[in-house]
Design brief:
The structure is a single chain. The chain has 17 helices and 13 strands. It has 455 residues and is an alpha/beta fold. The protein has a domain of 203 residues: Rossmann fold. The strands form three sheets. It has a six-stranded mixed β-sheet with strand order 4-5-13-10-11-12, sandwiched between helices. Helix 5 runs parallel beside helix 6, helix 11 packs across helix 13 and helix 14 packs across helix 15. The longest helix is centred in the last third of the chain and has 20 residues. It is globular.
């Protein structure tokens, strides 16, 4: 690190995204600026620049996957860039991050791509990328409690994954968690996670946006700490996914990163991590960012089609990608800024496109959640249009594990997805337990599928 004569003093604070001089300490209970704008966490880059870029790379590589607390985490291995003021004893971590990059060779070739990768953020403690942000937020809450702040509980509105992450990390820290879910709109696997982790779970007769309105009121009137992505502490953890991707390519920047978008905190987080690498000299170029939305919940896409001249919330319709069924995303302003700065594209996917993209990728060894299917479908469209070229290096961010959405997959293969005719269902073949019958059916299937692959 830097010499003792110029030892850095790492600092970070909240600032309004409108940057009009309004700042707050990170241990203040505050979510928006006086004008209602979201806050962002700002780091003292002059202090961070005291460490050469080559030294940051060496340090991050050295810490990765180690057992040195808490630096073996993909998030906390970059602690100086994330939350430098938290005592290591107050870090709440499951060693999240460091998720693998899957080289989607067969799937990529089927699309006409030579260098397609899937960033498997669902290979995490609670099965989604939300762990990356929740470790930071809950660690800060534990630090605040250690400093004598009164926080009776931490709460979130969720379409599933946020509630799982909050519940697990709060349980690990011994902090009460409260979760508001739209009743009947999350998978059983998502619902049972906060229940099992001991959270207070409310299933409300509304959609995510309705849950969000209630949790914001709870936070403002009852002193419960808000854990949704409008709390920019979450963004600090989620921004590490972009840094991690570049690190996994030996500090080479891919050409494209495609990410599904719902509440849109992940889009701004991705850009923020990439920004820090550019500003601190670790890389000298930026990738292009694609935000993929479900056609049933596409307010960012509609604004993009209008050149971002106007933005209007919408009433999100039901979608297979239930976790991004959000019509009034909290982080819309941050996301639009990120898309503009990264020469970005916003694309949408219909329900049949989502289902078939998931099924196509699964047949090449993946096991994708429907939200990843949105990103894959968008990627397919951009390849067909020639915007993504054959030799471009493309990384699609898979936000959650497919095992959280097995009902969706079962219905696809049983041809029971409403309004969708499954193109390549693969249900189990039920037969009597007679050798000749099984053998003949097996040989027919091997021949049929071989002919299909040849075509």
């Amino acid at each position: 690190m830097a010499s003792s004569q110029s030892k850095p003093s790492y600092r970070a604070w909240f600032r309004s995204i409108h940057d009009h001089g309004e700042t707050y300490a990170l241990d203040e209970v505050v979510y928006t600026a006086r004008d209602g704008a979201l806050l962002e966490v700002v780091h003292d880059l002059d202090e961070l620049r005291k460490v050469p870029a080559s030294e940051w790379k060496r340090l991050f590589d050295e810490r990765s996957h180690t057992s040195a607390w808490p630096y073996g985490s993909g998030v906390w291995g970059k602690k100086e860039w994330v939350l430098p003021g938290v005592d290591n004893e107050n870090v709440v971590s499951t060693y999240e991050g460091n998720s693998n990059l899957f080289w989607a060779d067969r799937y990529g070739r089927s699309l006409g791509l030579e260098d397609l990768w899937i960033k498997q953020c669902g290979n995490s403690h609670t099965g989604s990328f939300k762990d990356l942000g929740m470790t930071v937020l809950v660690s800060m809450v534990k630090e605040m409690l250690a400093r004598g702040k009164r926080i009776p509980a931490v709460a979130c509105a969720s379409t599933g994954d946020t509630s799982a992450a909050l519940s697990a990390y709060a349980a690990a820290a011994g902090i009460p968690a409260v979760v508001f879910l739209p009743r009947g709109k999350v998978s059983v696997a998502q619902l049972i996670q906060p229940v099992a982790n001991g959270a207070i779970v409310f299933a409300l007769d509304t959609d995510f946006d309705g849950c969000m309105e209630i949790v914001k009121r709870i936070a403002s009137q009852e002193g419960i700490y808000l854990a949704n992505s409008m709390n920019s502490l979450r963004i600090e953890g989620q921004k590490t996914v972009g840094i991690e991707i570049v690190q996994q390519f030996d500090w080479e920047v891919p050409d494209w990163i495609v990410i599904p978008g719902g509440n849109l905190g992940n889009v701004s987080a991705l850009a923020k991590g990439l920004d820090m690498m550019v500003e601190l000299g670790l890389v000298n170029r930026r990738p292009r960012i694609v935000c993929a939305q479900a056609e049933a919940a596409n307010p960012l896409y509609l604004a993009y089609r209008r050149g971002f001249e106007t933005y209007e919330p919408i009433a999100a319709r039901p979608t297979l990608a239930s976790a991004i069924q959000i019509g009034n995303p909290v982080s819309i302003e941050k996301a639009i800024d990120a898309i503009k700065r990264y020469d970005g594209i916003v694309e949408q996917a219909s329900e049949p496109e989502i289902a078939e993209a998931c099924a196509s990728a699964d047949r090449t060894g993946l096991f994708n959640c429907p939200h990843t299917g949105v990103a894959l479908a968008a990627t397919e469209k951009l390849v067909r249009r020639g915007e993504i070229r054959k030799r471009d290096r493309v990384v699609v961010i898979s936000t959650a594990h497919g095992l959280k959405f097995v009902d969706f997959k079962v219905k696809y293969h049983e041809m029971r997805l409403e309004g969708i005719e499954s193109a390549e269902p693969n249900p189990p073949i039920e037969l009597p337990a007679r050798y000749d019958t099984v053998r003949d059916a097996m040989l027919r299937e091997i021949e049929r599928r071989g002919a299909s692959r040849a075509n």
